[in-house]
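Sequence only, no structure available. Ideas?
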Amino acid sequence: MSPALLIEDLRKTYDNGVTALKGVSLEVAPGDFYALLGPNGAGKSTLIGIVSSLVNKTSGEVRVFGTDIATERGAAMRQIGLVPQEINFNMFERPLDILVNYAGFYGVPRAEATERAEQELRRAFLWDKAGKMARTLSGGMKRRLMIARAMMTQPKLLILDEPTAGVDIEIRRGMWRDLREINAAGTTIILTTHYLEEAESLCRNLAIIDHGTIVERGPMRQLLAKLDVEGFVFDVDGALPERLPEIAGATLLARDANTLDLEMPRSMDLNVVFARLSEAGIRVRSMRNKSNRLEELFVRMTGQEARAEAAA
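Reply:
I predicted one. Tokens follow.
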């Protein structure tokens, strides 16, 4: 079976001389949920623009399920659904009409499009808003409508560019549920996001792009396992003592009067930590992993930390 997306030595230099992509190669398997991460200006938007035929490449090859986007553009685009960062539907149309008309552009008969629109609006919990003006929807609803619209053509590959930007955590988690459902039904998803916990929660594989090149790629768990440090948060009973115990090789800090932050080597036994806390009269009520493992990997791979220190 052909890869859902195959990119080989993709390069892009704009007319002003800026080189956005410097020989990017990438492969996404059918059915995958894939994260494309990178700092601002890394080349993510250019890469997505080329794959979705909004930007012309300078050189290289891009295939969508074996279809070359340069020589068979129409056939390739029919397999792609794109959810851009910007809200770009008519605010004075009804959500039902937005979806039906969009499907019509791709040759879907109106009766079939109307049926699909109801299905997608129900999945997005927007069916009760189907007849309202789109401008009356909340920011989160508009984001969900963008995803519903992209799904109207039943794409095999769904590309999401910052789909949850600007929405609160409750709405974001609802969108995560919808995306997992779409992926479980067989749609391959490529996600760009600045919410690193989002990528860690949803994606099985990832690539990190920086300065127009891929600096790391692979299975999410495998890449996170490269980190030699683990972080935990401890909730404790009672107030913490003024002086915290020292734990060789680990860093223990008070987040507030009842919460501790711990960073320790992956090889360290947590029982050692608990023993030292107990000796100091600190009783741990609960613990949880910090959700910054992917952020740490991202910082290491892109050198953001070093750049920030240099700028300071």
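The mean pLDDT is 90.
Hope that gets you unstuck.
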